[in-house]
Specification:
The chain is about 70% helix and about 0% strand. By secondary structure, the chain is mainly alpha-helical. The chain has one domain. The model has no long low-confidence stretch (mean pLDDT about 80).
């Protein structure tokens, strides 16, 4: 195994965090589709963008977890929820973005 992807390396934490973020995005998309069973087509571009952004944020959150890949995955998964919650709070308070 190379040093780049060695267990506990920053690159590994970023990759695991990104995977956690991507899983969270896919769960959110599936949840949305289940709630809204209209015959709307899935917007592939929107879906890919959502997964990409979630993975990027998850990778950033994972990078903050030094050496623990399990925590990096959870941070990647929860990182997008944290940002989504902040957005919802801000929107409900009527504050401009």
């Amino acid at each position: 195994m190379t040093a780049f992807c060695a267990p506990g390396s920053v690159a590994t934490m970023v990759l695991v965090g990104a995977a956690g973020g991507a899983v969270r995005a896919l769960v959110g998309i599936l949840k949305y589709m289940e709630r809204n069973k209209r015959n709307e087509k899935l917007r592939v571009g929107y879906m890919l963008f959502s997964v990409f952004v979630s993975a990027a944020l998850g990778g950033f959150a994972g990078a903050l977890c030094e050496g623990n890949w399990k925590i990096a995955g959870l941070a990647g998964y929860a990182g997008t929820d944290f940002i989504e919650s902040l957005y919802k709070i801000k929107r409900s308070q009527g504050l401009e973005t």
